[in-house]
Amino acid sequence: xxxxxxxxxxxxxxxxxxxxxxxxxxxxxxxxxxxxxxxxxxxxxxxxxxxxxxxxxxxxxxxxxxxxxxxxxxxxxxxxxxxxxxxxxxxxxxxxxxxxxxxxxxxxxxxxxxxxxxxxxxxxxxxxxxxxxxxxxxxxxxxxxxxxxxxxxxxxxxxxxxxxxxxxxxxxxxxxxxxxxxxxxxxxxxxxxxxxxxxxxxxxxxxxxxxxxxxxxxxxxxxxxxxxxxxxxxxxx
Length: 237
Fold this sequence. Notes:
Distance between the termini: 120 Å
Mean pLDDT: 75
Structural class: mainly alpha
Helix content: over 70%
Shape: rod-shaped
Largest sheet: none
Low-confidence stretches: 58-77, 215-229
Strand content: under 5%
């Protein structure tokens, strides 16, 4: 009778352990799918943000740039189309880095989940073996499960670091797209300036702002003739 009761208890322990491992596997699978869906949504959002940098073929700046090229514009002069291309390339670099960070984040996250599951399963099996086969066998098995569990923790920490990097790249992409849109508006407005020298000076200022976007834009250099006239008016006053 006691042996029968012990056998039932052993069966119950095995069923409980197997059920716990099965639930953990389902939990990891659901968490992995949820994480993959979230990353796809974030990647889609980044693509939508980058889509705002698509050049408008009807913009005044592009038409003016094409007209100057058809008339053989001066060599070495920065064209508005080139400025827009440079700004768009910056956004494209942020997008590529964001995609790369998301892929690494997904890989680390999946590896962390399955490593944690392996460690949990081995520790649980060690507990069952301790009940069934004795303390020595169970303790050794349980201690062996600590290794993949610890590895899962380290992988999860690395996944968080890479995820933060992806978020930074996404913010950089959004800032870059905002600068691109502002640049497009500035180019369209500058294209309406009739004076060629004044227009070229504004293009130079825009080009310099692309090199150091965090700095305050430099004032547009004035024509030396205008400065001389202002000095003369001041002296007369």
